Amino acid sequence: MIKVGVVGGTGYTGVELLRLLAQHPQTELTSITSRGEAGTSVAEMFPSLRGHVGLKFVDPSEASLNKCDLVFFATPNGIAMQQTQALLDAGVRVIDLAADFRIKDVKVWEHWYGMTHASPALISEAVYGLPEVNRAMIRNARLVANPGCYPTATQLGFLPLMEAGCVETGHLIADAKSGVSGAGRKAETNILFSEASDNFKAYGVPGHRHLPEIRQGLSAAAGHSVGLTFVPHLTPMIRGIHATLYARITREEDFQSLFETRYADEPFVDVLPPKSHPETRSVRAANTCRIAVHRPQGGDTLVILSVIDNLVKGAAGQAVQNMNIMFDFDECLGLSQVPVLP
Amino acid sequence: MIKVGVVGGTGYTGVELLRLLAQHPQTELTSITSRGEAGTSVAEMFPSLRGHVGLKFVDPSEASLNKCDLVFFATPNGIAMQQTQALLDAGVRVIDLAADFRIKDVKVWEHWYGMTHASPALISEAVYGLPEVNRAMIRNARLVANPGCYPTATQLGFLPLMEAGCVETGHLIADAKSGVSGAGRKAETNILFSEASDNFKAYGVPGHRHLPEIRQGLSAAAGHSVGLTFVPHLTPMIRGIHATLYARITREEDFQSLFETRYADEPFVDVLPPKSHPETRSVRAANTCRIAVHRPQGGDTLVILSVIDNLVKGAAGQAVQNMNIMFDFDECLGLSQVPVLP
Amino acid sequence: MIKVGVVGGTGYTGVELLRLLAQHPQTELTSITSRGEAGTSVAEMFPSLRGHVGLKFVDPSEASLNKCDLVFFATPNGIAMQQTQALLDAGVRVIDLAADFRIKDVKVWEHWYGMTHASPALISEAVYGLPEVNRAMIRNARLVANPGCYPTATQLGFLPLMEAGCVETGHLIADAKSGVSGAGRKAETNILFSEASDNFKAYGVPGHRHLPEIRQGLSAAAGHSVGLTFVPHLTPMIRGIHATLYARITREEDFQSLFETRYADEPFVDVLPPKSHPETRSVRAANTCRIAVHRPQGGDTLVILSVIDNLVKGAAGQAVQNMNIMFDFDECLGLSQVPVLP
Amino acid sequence: MIKVGVVGGTGYTGVELLRLLAQHPQTELTSITSRGEAGTSVAEMFPSLRGHVGLKFVDPSEASLNKCDLVFFATPNGIAMQQTQALLDAGVRVIDLAADFRIKDVKVWEHWYGMTHASPALISEAVYGLPEVNRAMIRNARLVANPGCYPTATQLGFLPLMEAGCVETGHLIADAKSGVSGAGRKAETNILFSEASDNFKAYGVPGHRHLPEIRQGLSAAAGHSVGLTFVPHLTPMIRGIHATLYARITREEDFQSLFETRYADEPFVDVLPPKSHPETRSVRAANTCRIAVHRPQGGDTLVILSVIDNLVKGAAGQAVQNMNIMFDFDECLGLSQVPVLP
């Protein structure tokens, strides 16, 4: 049993983390901080947690996070980088669900996030928390940078191809579609029900922050710098990411086998049979990524379909998976929920 | 560990039952029958169950249901009444999620369901499976008639008032709204996405089959026959029932306390603080009924708000709760899922 | 051809008004004001209007509204009451789509709206713009108070019964469901897509501002003060209101005929055949109210179903209808759009 | 004023055609046929048409279609090809909204549609009804093959590039997303609300019938055979198609100008300013295609975004546009509806 703190529990990744931690048998949730909601009972704000989470939000200054074994940051970008060093110094391990430690090149990070990084020294220590790539390093990490939602779906879909070196890597295309919860729980006009419902649009086509994160991961897997066109879209559903990935074949392979073999031992990546079309709802509320491999009409373009729940494998679930690895729990502990369908 | 069979697992109550049973530590699912889908793997039909349910659908004739400790019927109305007697004779206990054994007056049943009842002799033995009313009888029942979705939300909302005798019972009003999954997984035009989405309508106002079921339960609680106007509506969401209930006060009471006291020991009924408005999503995918008690402007009309997930507390979850009671498991076993929000 | 100005065109009633005015053959839209968006092209903010509305938002101070024949206020409550007198003095007629002039008793208004009224003297002059009741007075009005959305659907559903005096008026019940656009285009957390989608809830049960407005209208029709329980709900669709109305019969009538006769000459009220269930989408984007009359099982409780598009007959469409009456245009001019289904 | 008949008016393209024809000042709708619904009033089936369409469905055998000036086929594939010759022989012009006459190579058609073509002789006479390409030929056509929804959005997005010859045409990618109404009004399980809502998936990745239609159109524009990967997706909205198109640049151009110039005189194609992201709702219920041109990070991959309402510019609206051209009406007659937003 470990003591766990959550910084910033009022957004969607926060409440999802609480949902999962409430069902985890080896964690004791000791404090949840929120500057704005200090004193409010968590279950009053999120009635779904009535009977499951008895805590109140506390002000960060009174949270005694130093006594935790692990602290999750479910905060906006730019918060974790200010507080992590002190926690590490106190012997607390940290998982940041925001983007502060995901990009290794601090200049690139500062360009895309529009801030000066407050702890550049920690960036190289931070382990990028994609267990399917970095499991061994995660185990011993003090600081894990939990991947973004689009980057998780996209990287898991492209990884076997990058590692095998069998497609052209200069012109990868990722056409990704996200449910609206990916935009967070912020009072913004463009994600109102009456704006986002019964509607579909692309956004950020000139450039989206997840582009450098994906490119970094794919380049590492390929062993050289890759080129990527990344187009995110907003689709009128709450949860789910569907990444449709395109790559041109440069060397023949049994691509289905390539994927099945690569993920044979992965508990949370499920390669579907040939000709499948994974639905986002098939992973709703679960920590699974489902992937299908297509080669339309036997041509030279591969189409990979990759789906996750953006709040689970794309955020809070992957964070719990990382926690399980870091503390030597069964990797699936507390993550065996069956997807909710319909 | 008990052996469990499911008859008819291809509808929404069926797949929901499988989701819950897959997470239940004391049940072994031995067979799932489907005439139309015999031979199909369950996980092929419902990819959400990949990795959780390894069975194939089998033809009823090959299911060896006689060897089960318990059989659930997740079939259309009129099936369970044909097969239950044989199972009981073989020592198998039965929970029917359809309506075959819910109405005590066989004439009333035959009128509303438009069929001749095939096992009228079993009707009196069947226990109506609303644990908040019939827990003791459920414990020893061979045959449980699992309540309908509207009847569960409506009865739990009205029960304390009926039992206390403090409202006029001749003119109760239940204005109920259901998600579309309540209509089942049938290929019918009126529940297509393009028909039911971005739309709201009442249906069955001249008369709905759940009316006699609700009236029977409320009359039993009141100790005399009650009058009820029941208007169901279809609302564009997948899961959830919201019942808005109206009754005129005939005797002053502390109505909030009345409800809190009545349900103080009920693990799956949650009475919210005064002035609350329960949302259906606050119980999504969980076996909870949340209730709020209002008396607008201090007038003489009470307004009770009662929400459930129609597939869980309104169907499969309540069936598992009944199973837990029947087999002396902890009543909450396998039913501790935290609601999925957002 | 009349000159028309719109004050506050950035909300949903505003953009809907622009949609309708752009198709109206007898209006010239001369200015649209917005403090926050002055200088922005209307079509940049609402791309649906590209090619239809060429204006930019202007600051109210530069709008020359005095030169208009008619000014619509599509503003939050409390704005029109500050500016109307000056416009009237300049000979401009005014239709207020907000609530400033709807309630005749200024004390009641100030209680429910939490403000001191800035022009109490105008309240008695203002004509409540429900054409089905006040057509003659609207024709000559300088100032029209356009009704609220819930009040329109509810009053049209109850009116024939109030006027005929055949139901108990002390305990009317209006259980109303609204699409989310009824909450306006405001950056508020509770109407985000991820909060309001796949969810259903009541709100404002202790008291909602439309209650006194409805009660005032029904009392006028009945000739005495009526009692009303009004429960609004939020349903996950963009447009539409469905009011389910309950009243106890005190005198036998042919209720179907009563409604058909009352609305026989009304171009925008459509009484459906017996046993109908009007859907909100059957009036989507059109200025029609559809009504069905039910008497379940021949009992003594009437159930009236009344649907409108909250942005059209519940706001902008009714405003245009009032304009047509005020300026002696054909009442249906510019309002003949066929509902958009599916 | 021309006499118009509609064969098969019970699907979504049918009811949409009726919505538009009801508002068209130069057409008299003389008969609507339906084998299954003969005798039913159209407005009973589609209450949105009450007050706008007074006809009943008639059996095809009694429809006197020979007396029409124009007959629309809003039927499943394979019907129009059986009846068109007789109508043409009687001097009636025909617009087929299905796919019977879209593909010039009858072998290709028979392969993808799985039927033997009943009128191969008519294929070469049929004019493909994309006015932006074939306006002159449409004017004199006896038989117009109205384009599919995906093909309209995709071709309009790629056309300027094909004609200019400035991109690699061997590996075009069209990642397209459709609202559920594109699947028609058929009682099929996979398009039920509870299946298609809050969900996103690709389908038909191995091959979709619209692929050869798009390839044919793009090849004609390019002057040589093109290669295309086409991946359609189902998105949880009623109406709308969003095509995201990818092509590699082979020759520098001012691509924004290229598109603006190409469509400068087109009444129903709207090229948005640079950096725009068209939303499907910005064309909801209107006959407009909106297009944005992107070149992310100045790289060598173009991203074109193209949106239409699948039932209007993608079906019924384009059919009316073709009718206007064929009968020398103003091309925009009856098609000036402002998009419905929100």
Question: How is the topology of this model organized?
Answer:
4 copies of one chain form a homotetramer.
Chain A lengths: L1 E6 L4 H11 L4 E7 L8 H4 L11 E2 L11 E4 L6 H10 L3 E4 L9 H8 L6 H4 L3 E2 L2 H10 L2 E3 L3 H16 L7 E7 L14 H4 L4 E2 L7 H13 L5 E7 L6 E8 L6 H8 L6 E3 L17 E6 L6 E8 L3 H15 L16
Helix pairs in contact in A: 1-11, 6-11, 7-9
Describe this structure in words.
The structure is a homotetramer of 342-residue chains. Chain A is of the alpha/beta class and 342 residues long. Chain A folds into two domains: 2-125, 3-Layer(aba) Sandwich (Rossmann fold); 149-309, Dihydrodipicolinate Reductase, domain 2. Chain A is 30% helix and 20% strand. Chain A has helices spanning 12-22, 42-45, 80-89, 106-113, 120-123, 131-140, 149-164, 193-196, 210-222, 255-262, 312-326, and strands at 2-7, 27-33, 57-58, 70-73, 93-96, 127-128, 143-145, 172-178, 201-202, 228-234, 241-248, 269-271, 289-294, 301-308. In chain A, the strands form two sheets. A seven-stranded parallel sheet of chain A has the order 3-2-1-4-5-7-6, with helices on both faces. In chain A, strand 6, helix 6 (131-140) and strand 7 form a beta-alpha-beta unit. In chain A, 60% of the residues are buried. Chains in contact: A-B, A-C, A-D, B-C, B-D, C-D. At the A-D interface, strand 8, strand 9, strand 10, strand 11 and strand 14 of A face strand 8, strand 9, strand 10, strand 11 and strand 14 of D.
Descriptive key words:
Rossmann fold, 14 strands, alpha/beta, globular, seven-stranded parallel sheet, 342 residues, 11 helices, homotetramer, seven-stranded mixed sheet, Dihydrodipicolinate Reductase, domain 2
